[in-house]
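### Sample
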Amino acid sequence: MAEIGLGLAALGRPAYINLGRDLPADRSVAAMRARAHEVLDAAYARGVRYLDAARSYGRSEEFLGGWLTTRPDVTDVTVGSKWGYTYTANWQLDAEVHEVKDHSVATFERQLAETRALLGRWLDLYQIHSVTPDSPALTDGALHQRLAELGAEGVRIGLSTSGPRQADAIRAALGVKVDGRPLFRAVQATWNPLEPSAGDALAEAHDAGCLVIVKEGLANGRLAVDPPAAVAEIGAEVDAAPDAVVLAAALRQPWVDIVLSGASSVAQLDSNLAAAGVALDPDLLRGLAEPPAEYWQRRSALGWS
């Protein structure tokens, strides 16, 4: 079965689009750093070994790098980060623009230097953030060459996807080669009972040897805060909270390697981790799927809070 990893999007910046964030009223840098380290400590103690950050997740790389620096006994984690979005909110909750997307070689070079300054030797996986089928990152030969050079240094190269055509982006990425070899060796995509449309493409990626990571398994909190009746009913039957039921469905997909928890507190983390013990036929939730265009439209309407 797949394992649960910890994503730091909700812990690295004061405003995010997740519903049900469990954060203190004080969202200063110091308070958020303390909360991130608290959750990282708990995650590691409970066996979590994959940690996910991004340049656009505020200070997530800084918080993670600082945590790793002060815990020399932590030697068995895998660290992934992402480039392609620049965080622009300047720690403001009500910023007009929170992040700006750009997949150019220049942005890659700048953000790789920033990531290395914060994560250094711990960087194992570097992904292009939020690739869609029309992204220039899928066709830019100069970028591909530069990514391949990073890959030759021992960093796994991957991409994350978003939008209603995730499957198309994944399949296009699987066809990208440099010197006859596949460039991308990891795919991180949204998959949950409301938006399972990337499943077949993720299975193809898994069969091609890619590490497959599921993000937004709780639909940015929708499935935990206001779960459909079917989720609540199953939870009552198996004595599990809605978030554990939903994440269990992702963990039991045969093509998945890692399912990310987006927990913002130790309590949320513990509830998410309970998914590993939930015996569930994921087909029981198949009827919850929304048309992808509708799902992503609703996601884009979520407010930053």
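The first strand starts at residue 3 and ends at 7. This sample (Oxidoreductase) is used throughout the tutorial notebook.
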